[in-house]
Design brief:
alpha/beta; Cobalt-precorrin-4 Transmethylase, domain 1; Rossmann fold; 3 domains; 4-stranded parallel β-sheet; 10 helices; about 20% strand; flat
Length: about 290
């Protein structure tokens, strides 16, 4: 049984920078992170062991016991940062630069007279941050949401995307919006980040070669879920795991080539553990004599 890693997988620079900042020894028990630094259970557990506190969101401000707080890699609205500072906290910003690029892009569109539209998941923390400083906006998560544009009577649209979406889905939705007769003009900037694109391209290429894919990453990681979706579209069996301990031997019976990929919030050691465990399973299966 052959086991192959995707050519691009695992943590991106934005996630790595956020982890490095949060793990700074001087913080320790003096830091609270507003939300999940990144969507990965192992990283969040490591932060807790380091003494860092986590609260779900800005609404839990009364639960913050430290003077230092950190904005997650997913970004936050400026008004959220202002609220924390007004409450007397020192704010450290671990926002990914590529997420903040989305904030600046949509705000620039508004200044130019476009009505802001974000293609993304309504309840995702990144999307909440993107729209948090906008007075009026629409979030489009699927084709059924497009009619909201007509109801709002907006004809000149500025469109951006959540950074972790599937490229084809975003392009499809934009083409559907452009085709509507009640839309006069569309200014679209594809803000899906390059690391997300790279991992989707890599898993699509690997899916052409394997007969089962293991996708490693947090269950609440948007970009990891999109890797699973790519496999589904390629009709390749995919198993999404957070840890090597969740691997099941029977997934690999009668398989000849296993692929491994991981989302941008999945640290290298988690991927390595899964890789080694799969190699061990492959060796055990290959060593058993064939049954005739």
């Amino acid at each position: 049984m052959k086991v192959s890693l995707a050519s691009a997988l695992g943590t991106c620079f934005g996630v790595e920078d956020a982890i490095t900042m949060a793990m700074t020894p001087e913080f320790g028990e003096n830091l609270t992170i507003v939300g999940q630094l990144v969507h990965n259970p192992q990283i969040n557990e490591s932060l807790k062991k380091n003494g860092v506190s986590l609260v779900n969101n800005i609404d839990a401000i009364d639960q913050i016991k430290t003077k230092k707080v950190m904005i997650t890699a997913h970004g936050a609205a400026q008004k959220t940062k202002d609220k924390l500072e007004a409450a007397g906290f020192t704010v450290y910003d671990a926002s990914c630069p590529l997420v903040m690029r989305v904030h600046k892009t949509i705000q620039s569109m508004v200044i130019k007279g476009y009505f802001p539209v974000v293609i993304g998941q309504q309840d995702h923390v990144e999307v909440k941050g993107i729209v948090g400083d906008l007075k009026d906006y629409l979030v489009i998560s699927g084709e059924s949401d497009i009619e909201k544009i007509k109801k709002g009577g907006k004809r000149k649209l500025g469109i951006v995307s959540q950074t972790t979406l599937q490229v084809e889905k975003v392009e499809h939705l934009v083409s559907k919006i452009r085709a509507k007769n009640y839309v006069d003009e569309v200014c679209f900037v594809n803000t899906i980040c390059q690391p997300t694109r790279d991992r989707q391209i890599a898993v699509r290429d690997l899916a052409e070669q394997v007969d089962v894919m293991i996708v490693v990453g947090g269950y609440n990681s948007s970009n990891t879920k999109k890797l699973v979706q790519v496999c589904d579209e390629k009709n390749i069996q995919a198993h999404h795991i957070e840890s090597f301990s969740q691997l099941k031997k029977d997934w690999f019976y009668e398989k000849t080539h296993v692929g491994i990929t991981a989302g941008t919030s999945t640290p290298e050691h988690v991927i390595d553990e899964a890789h080694k465990a799969i190699l061990k399973i492959a060796k055990e299966i290959d060593s058993k004599p064939a049954v005739h």
